[in-house]
């Protein structure tokens, strides 16, 4: 029996990872869910999973939480800019607690990607390697769910704005990435780097078409939603005009520029090989989210 730990266990991805571990036959009692708040972890407790409370900012609590854990799914934090130190804390605590292997959820093409999010992932991968602990890196591509937030505005205006040109994403659902993580950590190949990309390669024109199809399928009275490329500065100005708050106003053009460069696309089949199937179609995930 192997004891698995999962950080970020009350988040979207973490919840699916735990579901994936249970589906892979891991006993609930062999799963330690590390969460910031016990109130959010009620459902996990009901499922028989052990819940321990620790924040990425509190190294001692993390080390206590990892006691007895043999393989840890380390889910990257959500506070962009604070994550280098937070992730270092998690790794140090895992080493101190004698964890045998870390499976870290990184970013697709983390070693070469120039999007702003990549730097903290590169730092974390190096920190894990330098710690000497066995590891696997799960470099997740874009979540299909990322586009759910743009859907309502695009349906209303008939336009999806951006600055990704003809660049492509290879999105998959959070559930796809999480199940792949659960499978990879139950059959670990230490040192392995998985480039996890979805089966479809979509431009933002394709995303706008998916918006149209989903809107029509739900009976909305819409025409064709079109993608309009505003260029980097134009998109930034449009977001400012629409009073999109920082840091999103800065991040969104940066991410689209990354899409145009190909940072969020890959022909890797690692995700499909782990899942034993194609990734969930973008449109299907979108329809569930909106
Ligand atoms: N590839 C992509 O498209 C993409 C998109 C968005 C995010 N991400 C990355 O993937 C991660 C997981 O995604 P998700 O959808 O599951 O995000 P999420 O629902 O926001 O979950 C993030 C999890 O991290 C936990 N967390 C954040 N800061 C923490 C801290 N200081 N100490 C302890 N726990 C902390 C959160 O705890 P609480 O439950 O208490 O909030 C939550 O459980 C994100 O955190 C981010 O790094 C990737």
UniProtKB/TrEMBL annotation:
Q: Which residues form a coiled coil?
A: none
Q: List the InterPro entries.
A: NAD(P)-bd_dom, NAD(P)-bd_dom_sf, NmrA-type_oxidoreductase
Question: Pfam families of this UniProt entry?
Answer: NAD_binding_10
**Per the database record, which ranges form the NAD(P)-binding domain?**
8-153
Q: Which Gene3D superfamilies match?
A: NAD(P)-binding Rossmann-like Domain, UDP-galactose 4-epimerase, domain 1
Spell out the protein name for this chain. Answer: NAD(P)-dependent oxidoreductase
**The species this protein was found in:** Gordonia jinhuaensis
